[in-house]
């Protein structure tokens, strides 16, 4: 095993920061462009701007996405986790990192030294638009060993263009729209309180959601973009349903490993490696870690307590928050948008 394959996420980050190229002109160019776009209030704590490809988000993430598109050079060995916010992002990051790096971070001996335990999922797999292409910097990502792991909330159409052309692997997780809405509303209110803003009522959040004013655009467009990409290029885009992952995480870890080219051997299966990964990445284990309870993640939108990323994603929890009328409205929009696509949401039992 080469020494580069043993580089920790923290070391890589330090090297990338030390050798990053300062590029304020590029950021300013895109910031000026985004500032001229239509804007609106949205399901967030800041003003939304409309990306020219049809989705809304805060100014800074859009600028980061544009810089990433202009500067990022993908490799065929890259693996990108793609989700809408609050759709199982932390979970899929944990499972992917533990699966891909299970040999250099052996689960039986890693103990507190495992990167997921010491720096957390968002320190192990960083977002393009929130952590890498930020603060007037174009990071030097060539130092990262293969396979490089990245994350994004961007719609498929807005991914850095070299990802699609290089053949990089994309792992997408879709969640029931009503449960996604409730988790997004809860997280948005935490950020609003942190920024001394009044929390949104669930009714207001639902109105914004139905109007498509969610971070990174309408739920339905985002999901369908990756669903159609999965149908047309299944060897490149893996599509998971959050609810099915919750029911059988071990089966999904096996699918994930096979898809990214790191399948489990017979010996690993006999040694219970799959179950060990599931236990390591479980909500019960991850939420109890010190890095989760007291750690923080530096995002371009501000420093966020790691505990904010850990909300037990109980399937069907929307019923405790949404009125029957609102639930029916969201179901009707979903049925109309997904009609003819072949996409089935497991939680709806369709």
UniProtKB/TrEMBL annotation:
<protein>
    <recommendedName>
        <fullName>Sulfotransferase</fullName>
        <ecNumber>2.8.2.-</ecNumber>
    </recommendedName>
</protein>
<keyword id="KW-0808">Transferase</keyword>
<dbReference type="InterPro" id="IPR000863">
    <property type="entry name" value="Sulfotransferase_dom"/>
</dbReference>
<dbReference type="Pfam" id="PF00685">
    <property type="entry name" value="Sulfotransfer_1"/>
</dbReference>
<feature type="domain" description="Sulfotransferase">
    <location>
        <begin position="76"/>
        <end position="341"/>
    </location>
</feature>
<dbReference type="InterPro" id="IPR027417">
    <property type="entry name" value="P-loop_NTPase"/>
</dbReference>
<dbReference type="GO" id="GO:0008146">
    <property type="term" value="F:sulfotransferase activity"/>
</dbReference>
<comment type="similarity">
    <text>Belongs to the sulfotransferase 1 family.</text>
</comment>
């Amino acid at each position: 095993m080469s020494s580069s394959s043993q580089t920790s996420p923290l070391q890589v980050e330090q090297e990338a920061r030390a050798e990053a190229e300062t590029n304020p002109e590029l950021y300013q160019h895109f910031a000026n462009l985004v500032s001229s776009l239509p804007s609106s209030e949205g399901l967030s704590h800041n003003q939304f701007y409309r990306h020219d490809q049809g989705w809304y988000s805060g100014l800074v993430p859009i600028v980061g996405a544009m810089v990433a598109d202009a500067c990022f050079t993908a490799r065929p060995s890259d693996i990108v986790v793609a989700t809408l916010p609050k759709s199982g992002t932390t979970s899929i990051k944990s499972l992917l990192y533990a699966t891909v790096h299970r040999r250099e971070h052996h689960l039986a001996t890693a103990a507190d030294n495992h990167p997921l335990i010491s720096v957390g999922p968002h320190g192990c797999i960083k977002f393009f638009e929130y952590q890498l292409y930020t603060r007037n910097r174009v990071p030097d990502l060539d130092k990262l060993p293969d396979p490089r792991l990245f994350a994004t909330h961007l719609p498929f159409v807005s991914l850095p263009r070299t990802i699609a052309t290089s053949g990089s692997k994309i792992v997408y997780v879709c969640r029931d729209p009503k449960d996604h809405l409730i988790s997004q509303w809860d997280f948005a209110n935490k950020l609003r309180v942190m920024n001394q803003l009044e929390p949104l009522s669930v009714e207001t959040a639902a109105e914004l959601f139905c109007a498509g004013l969610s971070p990174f655009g309408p739920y339905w467009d985002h999901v369908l973009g990756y669903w159609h990409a999965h149908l047309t290029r299944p060897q490149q885009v893996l599509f998971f349903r959050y609810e099915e992952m919750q029911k059988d995480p071990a089966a999904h870890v096996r699918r994930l490993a096979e898809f990214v080219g790191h399948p489990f051997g017979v010996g690993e299966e006999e040694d219970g490696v799959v179950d060990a990964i599931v236990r390591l990445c479980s909500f019960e284990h991850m939420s109890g870690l010190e890095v989760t309870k007291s750690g923080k993640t530096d995002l371009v939108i501000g420093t966020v307590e790691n505990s904010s990323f850990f909300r037990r994603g109980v399937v069907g929890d929307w019923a405790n928050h949404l009125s029957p009328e609102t639930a029916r409205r969201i179901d009707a929009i979903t049925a109309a948008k997904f009609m003819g696509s072949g996409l089935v949401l497991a939680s709806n039992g369709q």
